[in-house]
Amino acid sequence: MNTSGMAFRDHAGSMDLCAAALQFASDTLRHGGHFVCKFYQGAEDRAFEKKLKTLFARVLREKPESSRSDSKEAFFVALKRKGDVQLRS
Fold first, then answer.
1. Terminus of the chain with fewer CB atoms < 10 Å: N or C?
2. What is the pTM of this model?
């Protein structure tokens, strides 16, 4: 995804990519596995974080020190996939 400089569009695109990556991870990732995705902060990221918390034992929201302070760029780091939970669309 190329960023456009339009915050809403960049956020929506990054959330779509994170959702697709999570679907793939849900289908392939083993119990105890980890998941990382880059996103641009916005209205939908809290709901995505909540979904991650149902699937993983620990979920972190990280902003690299190298990222500019005014950048909306961040990462979800989800650790230790729970074995007894499946992703619901």
1. C
2. 0.85
